Amino acid sequence: MSTATNKPYLISIGLEVHVQLNTQSKMFCSCPARYGDEPNTLTCPVCLGLPGAMPVLNLGAIKRTIRSGLMLGCETPPIVKWDRKSYFYPDMPKNYQITQFDLPLCEGGGVPLYDLAYPKEVQKNIPCPGKVIALTRIHLEEDVAKSTHHSAYSTIDFNRAGTPLMEIVSEPDITTPDEAFAYLNSLRQILVYAGVSDADMEKGQMRCDVNVSLRPEGQQELGSKVELKNLNSMSAVRRSLYYEIERQGEALDKQETIVQSTRRWDDAIGETRLMRTKEDAHDYRYLPDPDLLPLHTSDLVAEASQDLPELPHQKVARFEQDYGITHYDASVLASSQNLADYYEQAAAGASSAKKVANWVINNLLAVLNERAIQISDCPLSADKLRELVDLVEAGQVSNTQAKEVFALLLDAPDKSPAQIAKEKGFEPADSSEVAAFIDQAIAANPGPAGEVTDGNDKAINFLTGQVMKLSRGKANPKQVSEGIIARLRS
Ligand code: ZN
Ligand code: MN
Fold first, then answer.
1. What is the tens place of the pLDDT at every residue in 70-124?
2. Which CATH architecture has domain 431-489?
3. Cα-to-centroid distance, 207 and ligand 2 (Å)
């Protein structure tokens, strides 16, 4: 990693990611875990933190965490427990958070960095392809209430208080801002595949704190770490890290000491600002929560191992194998669960699963991008896309015509591809007509025709193009090429 500073430094980045789990109810009470309701309408004595209220474990949240851990290669200790983490915070009236300290639900494991999870401009030149970032642990805890600060006052909404949060802690194995970006993107992909969360950073479903430290080459122990807060998107994580690495490198160049501290990222200005130094560090005074019994996990782990969802890289391998598509195409299709499902539905029973993949990647994704719509809201059903590809494969419409049908289909979702092709008068030219066009093209282009006879394949393409023009795009290019070869080479 090169910075604008004079010396090379070793960079260590670790991420703590909080993920909202998609359970029906909160972590320790039966209030709904929902977002967007009237403030303070989803509360009870437990999640308000009233004295004496007794927490009850949410089994669904525990199962989701164990499943995530299994998909990330973690181990679950046979017994896990719940601890109180003490601190004063206005959005947590009981002054402690129920979390897990020394016996978390998951330990170890790792996040594989997928090629397509890197920022686009980096994908062609990934320094360590196939790198896996080791995880320290995953634990389960409760979220706090949400404060909103207005100019003269603050408001607080307890609907979020007590909702289940999974905290995923990485080892400081990440060495570049691009890797941090790929880590979050890959992790998100796996969690979505696990079905435990939508993990959308912009919606606050996935929140991330970043630790970064620099040290001179040759030094064993890590440098003082700086924690970055207020990172609301993957690109904010990446940009803040570029900034912070530069800042720390310049400080070290000037022999300044880096103080262990927490800094806030200002996305609009593009700078980090000091919030607090280690002197204000909290002593959390963890202690086992006497209201919650430790939990035996072996049955839960056995049950979760039974039906683990497919991982993104397993899906890629299966797509390559089953549909005969390239690794790159399979990776694009598997980059989102919804896109992968769409493709599989379209490819099922299609005359060419490979052609379906081409259509999804080259045509459909471009349109979705242009119109800024998600594949889940795609106006063209997977079945219709298959029908369209089948029409092309059967020689009913040419590729050019199919593109026209495709464009019309997007705005006429009730019609079928065949119907639109018929309305447009796209019928395959009959074979005697095509044969006549071939004769005409050969007669008009004796030079290229001779080259075809002499074995030049490029000349076939040229003549095919001429015939396609004569047929006004109606002829099937594959049949035309075959016809030309039959005429000139036999
Ligand atoms: Zn409640
Ligand atoms: Mn936490």
1. 999 999 999 999 999 998 888 999 999 999 999 999 999 999 999 999 999 999 9
2. Orthogonal Bundle (1.10)
3. 10
- How many Å lie between the centroid of ligand 1 and the Cα of residue 47? 4
Mean of per-residue pLDDT scores for the chain: 92
Q: Where are the domains of the chain?
A: 9-304, 312-423, 431-489
**Ligand 1 centroid, distance to 94 Cα (angstroms):** 14
Q: Which bound ligand lies closest to the C-alpha atom of 47?
A: 1
Helix axes 477-489, 431-444, angle to 10 degrees: 60
Whether pTM > 0.70 for this model: the answer is yes
Question: Is the pLDDT confidence value at 53 over 90?
Answer: yes
Computed from CA positions of residues 137, 140, 142, 148, in that sequence, does the dihedral angle turn out positive or negative?
positive
Task: List Cβ neighbours of 23 (8 Å cut-off, separation of 6 or more).
Answer: 33, 58, 60, 61, 64, 163, 164
Report how far ligand 2's centroid is from the alpha carbon of 155 (Å). 22
What single DSSP character describes residue 46? H
pLDDT digits (tens, 9 = 90+) for 133-156: 999 999 999 999 999 999 999 999
Give residue 50's pLDDT band: very low, low, confident or very high (50, 70, 90): very high
| Distance from Cα 482 to the centre of ligand 2, integer Å | 66
Encoded tokens for 48: 């308000």
Asked whether 145 and 161 are in contact (CB, 8 A), the reply is yes
Return d(Cα 117, Cα 283) in angstroms, integer: 37
Q: Give the sign of the dihedral formed by CA 91, CA 36, CA 47, CA 75.
A: negative
**Which DSSP string do the residues of 136-157 spell out, in sequence order?**
EEEEEEE---EEEE-SS-EEEE
CA neighbor of 307 nearest in space, from 195, 199, 198: 195
Mean pLDDT of 247-261: 92
